[in-house]
Design goal:
The chain is mostly helical. It has five helices and no strands.
Amino acid sequence: MIGLAIGIFGIGLAVALAGIGSSIGIRVAAEAANAAMIEEPKNFGKYLVLTALPGTQGIYGFVIGFLALAKLRAEMAFGDGLALLFACLPIALAGLFSAIYQGKVTAAGINMTVKHPEESGKALVLGVFVEFYAILGFVISIMLLNSGFFK
């Protein structure tokens, strides 16, 4: 049963840490968007896209949690549970940190968009650069889960 518990812990980390990162990142961006709307409320759509961007890491963590759930077995060996935990760690950690930093980048982009609304596309591109590292963690977690190690 210890292998099962370790596997469940890994799934919990993937979902929880990526979700926490997204929540923090969105909060940082939303604070900037709320302040920006005091000055330029007509740019709400531009602010919304930049605010939502850090939320994707939480989705990636949820997807990995769902995929990893399919690998659980009632009588998992300790090594299998550990492998499941390690397969979930890339998105757990990449999701946590990239979402927080993406929130900071998109908040700066929102602040720039207040003065230069025509430049919001550039702000979005800069936010996507941070997203790339969450995608790498997501892809590695998928590759590990589908490596053939799990039955």
